[in-house]
Give the backbone structure.
Amino acid sequence: MDKLVLVDTHANGDALRDNLAPDISVYAADNVPDADAKTDFSRMELFVELKFAETSDPFRDPKGPRQPQAEDFRFENDSEVSQLNRGQLCSYAAAHAGSQFRVHTFTLSICR
């Protein structure tokens, strides 16, 4: 696998996986699905989910390098939209791992 191809799949769900559709699906250049079936978790290398509101971030970053060690630091954001976004990412990860023999799955969640 020398090259990866990023495909806009937000509007074309995987018919075999409850029509789940990550915003961007990343495929090996020699394993890109047909144009009619852009989202294919069985061929996908990884996926990218984009959120355009900072409040949509499912996770929070520590303000300082020692803060994650604090007892009251929570890695997960508590807002309802953050919880929904974590669930969405988990659904995609389950579809990906359930479609291929894998021991790990990589994903990108980008919130701006």
